[in-house]
Specification:
The protein is of the alpha+beta class. It is 16% helix and 43% strand. It folds into 2 domains: 8-77, Beta Barrel (OB fold (Dihydrolipoamide Acetyltransferase, E2P)); 80-229, 3-Layer(aba) Sandwich (Trna Endonuclease, Chain: A, domain 1), CATH 3.40.1350.60. The chain contains 3 helices and 16 strands. Strands 3-2-1-4-5-6 form a 6-stranded antiparallel sheet, with no helix packed on it. A 6-stranded mixed sheet has the order 7-8-9-12-14-15. A 4-stranded mixed sheet has the order 10-11-13-16. Strand 10 (137-138) and strand 11 (143-146) form a beta hairpin. Helix 2 runs parallel beside helix 3. The radius of gyration is 18 Å and the shape is globular. The two termini are 33 Å apart.
Length: 232
């Protein structure tokens, strides 16, 4: 996924009320929209280098949006709204080997009245539900982790993916690692042990789990390669 405009470099001052960040650009301080509802653990230290996208829509109150944070010398894509677009690009360009050559790709499909999955695919007359989780947490130089806070919604999606298998679908969940140079992925069981337990149940029930790392630059973000999932 290419950025249509050049990103603007700044220094993070603070994040507050979940959706707001104050950023210093040269000598000017601007308030930028933070398109990430997670805790952003390890990313929001004051002084971190950040990259903003400017929006010229007159209807928008905030003219800047946070796209990338540089933490521990790594670029991290923090805009969760881009995750599905990145995965959609990966599906259309066969960058996800397990889901190559899908006959149809439908985004945001309701599974039942309460649950909507990110994609419904069809391949060789087999229907496949695919859920995407954006990953921005890392606590060492090689391992990406999810979640970065307790996620009851994430557990709900795992149980729904199990239900989909019982109804005859295939179920996949892809952890989209928007962090440069990660080599492994694991569930952050110390942050949300309930999610970890449901992950193990889902894995045993036949849900397919994938972790793919992104190639990140100031011009584009796209799926780069599969990385290993390790279980504690």
């Amino acid at each position: 996924m290419k950025f249509t405009k050049s990103l603007i470099k700044g220094k993070l001052i603070r994040r507050y009320k979940r959706f707001f960040t104050d950023v210093k650009i040269n000598k000017k301080i601007v308030t930028a929209h933070c398109p990430n509802t997670g805790s952003m653990k390890g990313l929001i230290e004051e002084g971190n280098e950040v990259y903003l996208r400017k929006n010229n829509d007159p209807k928008r109150k905030l003219k800047y949006g946070l796209e990338i944070i540089k933490a521990d010398k790594r670029l991290v894509g923090v805009n969760t709204h881009l995750a599905n677009k990145i995965v959609n690009h990966g599906l259309e360009n066969n960058l996800i080997s397990e889901l190559k050559n899908s006959d149809t790709i439908k985004p945001e499909v309701f599974f039942d009245e309460e649950t909507r999955f990110d994609f419904l695919l069809e391949k060789n007359n087999q229907k496949i539900y695919l859920e995407v989780k954006n990953v921005t947490l890392f606590r060492d130089k090689e391992t990406a982790e999810f979640p970065d806070a307790i996620t009851s919604r994430g557990s709900k999606h795992l149980l729904a993916l199990i239900d989909a298998i019982k109804r005859g679908y295939k179920s996949y969940l892809i952890f989209l690692v928007q962090i440069q140079d990660m080599k492994k992925f694991k569930i952050a069981s110390d942050i949300d042990n309930e999610y970890y337990k449901n992950y193990l149940i889902a894995k045993k029930s036949g849900v397919n789990f994938l972790a793919y790392r992104c190639k990140i630059s100031l011009k584009e973000i796209y799926i780069e390669k599969k990385i290993k999932i390790i279980d504690e």
